[in-house]
Amino acid sequence: MPAVQETVDRVRQIDVDQYKYGFVTDVESEKAPIGLSEDTVRYISAKKNEPAWMLEWRLEAFKRWLTMREPTWARVDYPKIDYQNAYYYSAPKKKPELSSLDEVDPQILETYKKLGIPLREQEMLAGVVRKDADGNVMPERRVAVDAVFDSVSVATTFKEELKRAGVIFMPMSEAIQEHPELVRKYLGSVVPTTDNFFATLNSAVFSDGSFVYVPPGVRCPMELSTYFRINEANTGQFERTLIIADKGAYVSYLEGCTAPMRDENQLHAAVVELVTHDDAEIKYSTVQNWYPGDADGKGGIFNFVTKRGDCRGKNSKISWTQVETGSAITWKYPSCILRGDGSRGEFYSIAISNGMQQVDSGTKMIHLGKNTTSRIISKGISAGKSNNTYRGLVTAHRKATNARNFTNCDSLLIGDQCGAHTVPYIEAKNSSAVFEHEASTSKISEDMLFYCRQRGMSAEEATALVVNGFVKDVLQQLPMEFAVEAQKLISISLEGSVG
Amino acid sequence: MLLEIKNLHVEVEDKKILNGLNLTIEKGQVAAIMGPNGSGKSTLSYVLAGKDAYNITEGDILLDGESILELAPDERAAKGIFLAFQYPVEVPGVATMTFLRTALNAQRKLRGEGEYSTPDFIKLVRETSAKLGVSQEHLRRAVNVGFSGGEKKRNEILQMAILQPRLAILDETDSGLDIDALKTVSEGVNRLRSSERSMIVITHYQRLLNYIVPDVVHVMSKGRVVKSGGKELALELEAKGYAQYTDEAA
């Protein structure tokens, strides 16, 4: 069955405004007292049994945060966030020591099952034959998963097998205990604690996230992924992810996220740091499907995320691919610092906004080294009454001889009540830099829809086909399973946009 | 009788385009519709296919004796109406193969038929495209994007061959084609002629009818059919021009 068809069927199965992942898991949780103070920071650090240096690091960030102001330059409009009226830590109650998955709360296991995320290795290995969009049997592929539920990681799969390959994949809280030397060396080295309002807040109160270290010359034997779920009401999620690919290493990492439907807004302020040494490569893919709020703009996640990669070594490469369909507010600019000579940064993005959603997203490509190259392909799709802004910076340092960038920003409008905006910032301090920028804005034309419908497709099928064509360049960058998922998600997100 | 158009009056933005048009098409018949620019030929093709923005103020269109005026374009397509566009539309990023498959399965689903399996579909497309001289590379390219005029028209005929309509409307299929492309496209169309398939061949020039020889020729002027006859009528028009009809209708 072609994915387009399947998508449309799935769209039909759900009513308008029925966010598929909107259920709440009833699980007893342990929370920090409401509000944010130095005590909250100490509480979180104590819960995690952290060493003194980690607490110091957090406290310093907190002090700094108190002096900072929330940024207002993005093209998003939202009510003032009351930082004292939220919980900064929430963890499912559990036995103190988890020796196997059997001890994870069955409700939580059930949650991930419902979300389609397998946490039991034997289930993943049990060989369900997968087929691709054209019905061909796909080679068996395994994905190791770290599942983060509210503030803590509840399960990480394939840890042992990865360990044999020398790959460290574990929750950040465990990495602080088990690999403090690596964490101390790299944490905050790409996104410093002073970086920006939300990143600084994250530095003070981050609770969990994933830690990955791939040693020199190792090609990670499977895809790694983290699945973030916000469950608890009135709780912010502040995860911190750190991925290091040592010399000549390679890793592909996937990130997915969902949250229940709630009337109030919830804050998600994550920080992701990537480091590649000489000849290493990290491919980071995100399918962001946080609850977007209802048709009137009530509820939904405020997504303020700082993601940055540092191509520290020569000829290293970092590639960001994102499919953004959820969240009431998206404020996110996955970036690359091209420090090593000959390094390369890539950013492929599909950002879809429908209903009352507001997206301000893009990237920064900072060329510092010689012969560095970057490529930006951004596809924004606006429907409903949403606003979708691409904001991107491309800059070449004066020593960055022969820096090259190619940027392509396309916007597609569905209907006549939405907006698409493109805000490129381009700075070249080196005369040998070559930056190319292409941009287009188009509407799904009546002629195109009529052409498809004359051939037998419904209005929804026709829109899904046209949109999937529009985002094809980016979808191709995603690992195969994700590409199919993303294709379905795109159509579901556009539900109700066809007049 | 497959199609019957009765006293059709159509307006676009308050401008009257079709003005009491009557036309019947028999099963298996190939009917040419000729006429000067602005006589309403293309409007007729869009109205048959169900495009929005055309306001039908009077009359009816019957397919198999039933009115299709209330049917959406995709429902009409599923009933076997196919329009080969004068200006085929580009669909960026969508491979021709994907487009064909989505269209075919959508129609089959509307008709309550099962979807084609992947191997069967691939076999069908390979065989059909080989007959029409369409390359595999063409099937991988995005629909009509960067196609030459001839390739676009050939792509329309390929779609027609895959979808197997009962009524094919060819709107100025000869426009923009050089003689070689015209021959190729015409061969494709002729291959699809059958006692089960009717065709309406809309053209301004007689040239196309040398290759697609019609059973009947209708002349349109000012929004209606003003004369009908055999294939020799086309030759007569070629010699004398449309002036006599435009005057008559006035």
Please write out the topology.
The complex is a heterodimer of chains A (about 500) and B (about 250).
Chain A: H1 3-13, E1 29-31, H2 38-47, H3 52-66, E2 90-92, H4 106-114, H5 121-125, E3 143-149, E4 152-156, H6 159-164, E5 168-171, H7 172-178, H8 180-186, H9 197-205, E6 210-214, E7 223-229, E8 240-245, E9 250-258, E10 265-268, E11 271-276, E12 281-288, E13 300-311, E14 317-324, E15 329-332, E16 335-338, E17 344-353, E18 358-367, E19 373-382, E20 387-396, E21 404-413, E22 419-428, E23 434-443, H10 446-454, H11 459-470, H12 472-475, H13 480-493
Parallel strand pairs in A: 3-7, 6-8, 7-9, 8-11, 9-12, 10-13, 11-13, 12-14, 13-15, 13-16, 14-17, 15-18, 16-18, 17-19, 18-20, 19-21, 20-22, 21-23
Antiparallel strand pairs in A: 1-2, 3-4, 5-6
Chain B: E1 3-12, E2 15-25, E3 30-34, H1 41-49, E4 55-63, E5 66-67, H2 73-78, E6 81-84, E7 91-95, H3 96-110, H4 118-132, H5 136-140, E8 142-143, H6 149-163, E9 167-171, H7 179-191, E10 198-203, H8 207-211, E11 216-221, E12 224-229, H9 232-240, H10 243-249
Parallel strand pairs in B: 3-10, 3-11, 6-9, 9-10
Antiparallel strand pairs in B: 1-2, 1-4, 4-5, 7-8, 11-12
Describe it.
The complex is a heterodimer of chains A (about 500) and B (about 250). The model of chain A is unreliable at about 10-15 and about 120-135 (pLDDT under 50). Chain A is of the alpha/beta class and about 500 residues long. In chain A, helix 1 (about 5-15) crosses helix 11, helix 1 (about 5-15) crosses helix 13 and helix 3 (about 50-65) runs antiparallel to helix 9 (about 195-205). Helix content of chain A is about 25%, strand content about 35%. In chain A, the strands form 3 sheets. In chain A, strands 5, 6, 8, 10, 11, 13, 15, 16, 18, 20 and 22 form an 11-stranded mixed beta sheet that branches. Chain A has a 10-stranded mixed beta sheet with strand order 4-3-7-9-12-14-17-19-21-23. Chain A has a two-stranded antiparallel sheet with strand order 1-2. Chain B has a single domain, classed as P-loop containing nucleotide triphosphate hydrolases (Rossmann fold), CATH 3.40.50. The model of chain B has no long low-confidence stretch (mean pLDDT about 90). Chain B has helices at about 40-50, 75-80, 95-110, 120-130, 135-140, 150-165, 180-190, 205-210, 230-240, 245-250, and strands at about 5-10, 15-25, 30-35, 55-65, 65, 80-85, 90-95, 140-145, 165-170, 200-205, 215-220, 225-230. In chain B, the strands form 3 sheets. A 6-stranded mixed beta sheet of chain B has the order 6-9-10-3-11-12, sandwiched between helices. In chain B, strands 2-1-4-5 form a 4-stranded antiparallel beta sheet, with helices on one face. Chain B has a two-stranded antiparallel sheet with strand order 7-8. Classes of the chains: A alpha/beta (about 500), B alpha/beta (about 250). At the A-B interface, helix 10 and helix 11 of A face helix 2, strand 7 and helix 3 of B.
